[in-house]
């Protein structure tokens, strides 16, 4: 498995897209985050990236003049393998938007399309999965 990680910026995303195209061209299989092998469905100014909360040390807080003991780091990554992945589930591309009895998800689907999906309580198990989904998670619903 080859994993490439870049900053979660438009420039980082373009570098990952270039690496992705080259790897697919030589026979690699994309394992994550993309659930497909076709070209990325997102178009500028939108770009694919994720975020994780990282703890800051005391020295890091002082150096940045920060008040909070954490920072949300944005990144983009690509995992590629010689072997095709067994499962292909959609990926949540943005922070879910929650409302009263509804959740709106932006997802990248295994067929290569990026869509906004609104799930309500009427959607049962899919709605329950969407309530627990986070940015970057897979989504089977």
Question: What structural keywords apply?
Answer:
141 residues, alpha+beta, 2 domains, 22% helix, flat
- Range of strand content: 35-45%
Distance between the termini: 27 Å
Poorly predicted ranges: none
Element order, helices and strands?
EHEEHEEEEEHE
- In DSSP terms (H or I, runs of 4 or more residues), the helix count works out at 3
* Average of the residue pLDDT scores: 94
How many strand elements? Answer: 9
The radius of gyration computed from the alpha-carbon positions, rounded to a whole number of angstroms, is 17 Å
Q: Let me know the largest β-sheet.
A: 5 strands, antiparallel
**Tertiary shape:** flat
Q: Kindly state the percentage of residues in helix.
A: 10-25%
Structural class given helices, strands, pairing?
Answer: alpha+beta
- Please indicate the count of domains: 2
Structure notes:
- The chain has 141 residues and is of the alpha+beta class.
- The chain has two domains: 1-87, no CATH class; 89-141.
- 22% of the residues lie in helices and 35% in strands.
- It has helices spanning 10-25, 58-64, 125-132; strands at residues 2-7, 29-32, 50-55, 70-81, 90-92, 97-99, 102-108, 114-120, 138-139.
- Strands 5, 6, 7, 8 and 9 form a five-stranded antiparallel beta sheet that branches. Strands 1, 2, 3 and 4 form a four-stranded antiparallel beta sheet that branches.
- Strand 7 (102-108) and strand 8 form a beta hairpin.
- The longest helix has 16 residues, at 10-25.
- The chain starts with a strand and ends with a strand.
- The model has no long low-confidence stretch (mean pLDDT 94).
């Amino acid at each position: 498995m080859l994993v490439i990680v870049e900053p979660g910026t438009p420039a980082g995303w373009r570098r990952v897209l270039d690496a992705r195209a080259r790897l697919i061209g030589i026979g690699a299989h994309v394992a994550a985050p993309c659930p497909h092998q076709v070209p990325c469905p997102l178009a500028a100014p939108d770009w694919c990236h994720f975020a994780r909360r990282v703890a800051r040390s005391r020295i890091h807080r002082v150096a940045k003049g920060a008040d909070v003991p954490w920072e949300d780091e944005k990144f983009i990554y690509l995992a590629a393998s010689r072997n095709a992945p067994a499962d292909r589930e959609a990926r949540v591309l943005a922070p879910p938007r929650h409302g009263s009895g509804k959740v709106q998800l932006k997802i990248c689907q295994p067929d290569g399309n990026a869509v906004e999906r609104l799930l309500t309580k009427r959607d049962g198990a899919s709605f329950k999965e969407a309530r627990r989904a986070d940015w970057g998670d897979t989504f089977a619903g």
